[in-house]
Amino acid sequence: MIRLLRRVIALFTYRRDEADLAREMSSRVEVLSTTTLAGVAPAIAGLIAGLPVAWLLAQMFPTLFFEVGPRDVASCVIGPAILLLVAIGAALVPARRATRIDPLVALRSE
Questions:
Q1: Percent composition of the chain: helix, strand, coil (DSSP 3-state, to 5)
Q2: Which of 8, 31, 67, 82 has the fewest other C-beta atoms within 10 Å?
């Protein structure tokens, strides 16, 4: 989880100038939603790609699970939900930080 947070912070630090220009032209809510979506998009893509693979592997190796069936709905829902919540939290931290930066100060620093 720490690596995910570090990766998202690095992504937003890299795109700081772009966020400043967008904030100059739009509202704070729009910048917050755009930057949060940019941080959550890799997690959603990973879930879309990983859930079918995990389901197939669970069908192939059902004996590897201890007291959990390969089609256990609770495990298949809770795990991805926690991952998505962590990704949203990790994306909100730098997104809120990006909305607090004064655009003029950021543009002058270039």
A1: 85, 0, 15
A2: 67
CA atoms within 13 A on the CB side of 19: 28
Cα–Cα distance, 80 to 99 (Å, whole number): 28
* Digit-coded pLDDT (tens) for 64-98: 777 777 778 888 889 899 999 999 998 888 888 77
Residues 6+ away with beta carbon under 8 Å from 110? 17
Give the model's pLDDT for residue 65: 73
Please, how many CA atoms are within 13 Å of residue 67, restricted to the half-sphere of its CB?
Answer: 0
Q: Residue 44 has what pLDDT?
A: 92
List CB contacts of 99: < 8 A, sequence separation 6 or more: 23, 28, 31, 32
